[in-house]
Amino acid sequence: MRPRPPLILERVAELLSEPANLVEPYARAQLLRAPMLVRACVVAQAKAIPRLHEEIDALRSLFSRALPLIDEPALCERLADELGAAPASLDIADLETRCDAMRTLLIRLHAWVDQRDSTGLASIRSDIWAELRMSTERRRTGLDRF
Fold first, then answer.
1. How far apart are CA 146 and CA 139, in angstroms?
2. I need a labelling partner for 20 at 20 to 30 A (CA). Which of 46, 70, 91, 105 fits?
3. Closest by alpha carbon to 63, among 109, 118, 95?
4. How far apart are CA 86 and CA 140, in angstroms?
5. pTM higher than 0.90 for the full model?
6. Alpha helices (H) along the chain
7. Which positions ≥6 away from 134 have C-beta within 8 Å?
8. Per-residue pLDDT at 48 exceeds 60
9. Please, how many CA atoms are within 13 Å of residue 109, restricted to the half-sphere of its CB?
10. CA dist 9 to 5, 51, 66, Å?
């Protein structure tokens, strides 16, 4: 038998829900939080690799558009290094590490752009804000709250 984490976690969520009918309302509400969290983890795990690849691709695209407009050598070098980096593996931890590093670089780029009063940078500023909004949408879980 090959273990399938999403199926196992779904069964765990079901098992956690069963005793909820045997307890008073407050305790029932507390017990039913665990299955909801487990299901949220299943959804997040299933979407992780495609979401991270989409995010990395979006940041690489933004960095490539920004690079010709940057006149700070250290930031140019950092952007060029990121654009020349080998693709991340399909391991979620590796993808998250890469994405975190790119997000840190995005913060640095955003700070640099915001310190300049150039109309030529308006499109990059707009692209940064658009990516921040899109990233929020990509990370949405589908559950309103826990």
1. 15
2. 46
3. 109
4. 28
5. no
6. 5-17, 25-31, 33-66, 73-84, 92-114, 122-139
7. 58
8. yes
9. 33
10. 6, 21, 42
